[in-house]
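Risk register update: the risk that structure generation would not scale has been downgraded. Supporting records follow, first protein first.
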Amino acid sequence: MPSLPPPPAALEIFGDALPLASRYTSFLAGPGVERGLIGPREVSRLWDRHVLNCAVLTELIPDSAEVVDVGSGAGLPGIVLAIMRTDLSVTLLEPLLRRTVFLQECVDLLELPNVTVRRARAEEVVGEYAADVVTARAVAPLSRLVGWALPLLRADGELLALKGERAAAEIEDAQPVLDKFGVRVAEVLHVGRGKVDPPTTVVRAVAGKIPQPPKGRSGPRRGARRRGGAHGRKR
C-alpha cells in the first residue's frame, strides 16, 4: 500500500489513534483507488479533504453513542469516527456488495471491534435501529436523505450530514420533509475550526419523534445490529 505522510494537523486531531488512521488512509490510496471507491486524483488530498474533514465530526457526537453511517461507501465518515472514538458503536450501512466487501476488509485490517458492516439500504432496516446519531457524506440531497435517516433514529437522535456550500439552501429545500418527520431543529454548523481549513460544514437535524416503522416490522430498538454484513447475502 502507498505511504501517505500525515499533515501536522493529523496528530493534533487523532492523537494516539494516528497510526491506525494512517493505515486506513493508505488502504484508501491503494485498494480504495484500485477498486474505484476513491478517484485517483483524490489521493494527494485524502488527508485534508477526506479523512480530517470527517474526523472533526466527532466534536458533535456524544459519548458512547450508537452511530449508523448511511451509504458508507469507502468508510467516510464511519470508519474514521470509529478509529477516533473507541467508545462509539458504529454500523456501516451500505447496499453495494463490492463496497461492503471493502469495508469489511478495512474493519478486519484495522481490528475495529466497535464496527459492524451491514449490507442493506436504509429503508430496508427501518425498525431495526434506534440510533443516537445517523451520519452521511455525499449520499443524497437533504430532501431525500431525511426520509432515509430519520426512521433510524431514536427520539431526540440527530442526523449529522456533511455538506458543502449549499447546506443552508438544502435545509430550505427540504423544509416540507423536515416538517413531515417532526424535526425539531435543522441548522448548519461548522466544526474543526483551527484544525481543518476550511472547517467542515454539517447539517444537524434533531428528530422530534420516533417515526413509525411499516406494518409487520418490530418497533425501533437500541443496539439491534447484525455482524458480518458483507457476507452471506446474494448479489
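Supporting record for the second protein:
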Amino acid sequence: MPVPAHHVISLPPPFDAPPYSADIFSGRTVLVTGGGSGMGLAMARAFAQGGAQVAVMGRSLEKAQAGAARIDELGVRAHALSCDVRHPDQVAAAFDEVERELGPVSLLANNAGANFPVLAEDISVNAWNAVTRIAIDGTFLCSSEFARRRISRGEGGAIVNNSAQYIWTGFPGDAHSAAAKTAQATMTKKMARDWAPFGIRVNAIAAGFFPHETSTAGRREGGTEPLQNMIPAGRTGSIHEFGWLSALTCTPLLEGLTGQVILQDGGESLRRSLMMPDFVPPRERADGPWGWR
C-alpha cells in the first residue's frame, strides 16, 4: 500500500549543507577505491566537501577521470588513477602515484566492488572470484598498504569500508556479495584492534537501499516508490547521505569511534511482522531472484 499522507517522512538536508565544516579535512588526502561513480563517488564528494584532496581510483581510468571532474567542481584538488585492487603491486604503485600528486594518503575509503543477482547454485567460479576478490582482497590489500605507510610515518589516519545491510538478512541472489561484505565487516573489527595503538581508526557502513545511476538494487519498474513503501523510514536513502556518514566517521568529531559497522538502512532491517507478504523462494520468482529484473 502507499505510504499514508499523515506519516512523517524525514528528508536529509540538501547536498550543499553537509554536517561538518568546509575545512574539517583541510590538508588531508583521501584515496577512494571505486570512486568514479555510484556510492564511491558519493564518498569522494563528501570528503571533498570537507576540504580533502581526493584521489579517485578505479579499474577504468575513464570512469575515474569523470569522477575526478565532479570533485574539481567542488573546488578541491583531485587526481584520477587506474588500479585493480586485487593485485598488491598495483595497489602499492597507486599509493606511490597519489603521494607524488597529492601527498601522503591519510584517509582511505574502500568502496571497490562488484555485484549482480544470481542464485547460489548458478554462481560460477569466475563469478564468485570476480565479486569476492575485489571486495575481500581489495579491502585487505588497500588497508594494509595504507596502515604500513601511516605506521612508518608515525602518523594516524582513518579508514571507512562500504559493507552492506544484507550481511545479516540473507538477501536473495547475493551469496557471493554477502560473503564478501561480511568479510569486510569482520576485517573492520580486526584491523581496528590491530591498528588502534598507531592512531588508525577503522569503521564500516552497512548500507541499505541507496538507488543511483549505476545500480539496479533498490529500483523497480515504475521507480523506487514500491521499495519506499517497504521501509519504515518511508523512503530509500539519498546517495549523499551515505557519503556524509562515511566521511563523518573519519572526522575528528568521531575520534573515539573505531571497529564499528554502522547500519544505515532507514530501518529496513527492522521490517519484520506477522503481516508481511508471503515468502516466495528466489528460484520461483517470475521476475528474478531479487524480485525485479
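Helices lie at 38-49, 61-72, 88-102, 125-153, 175-195, 225-230, 239-248. On this basis the risk owner (M.S.) recommends closing the item.
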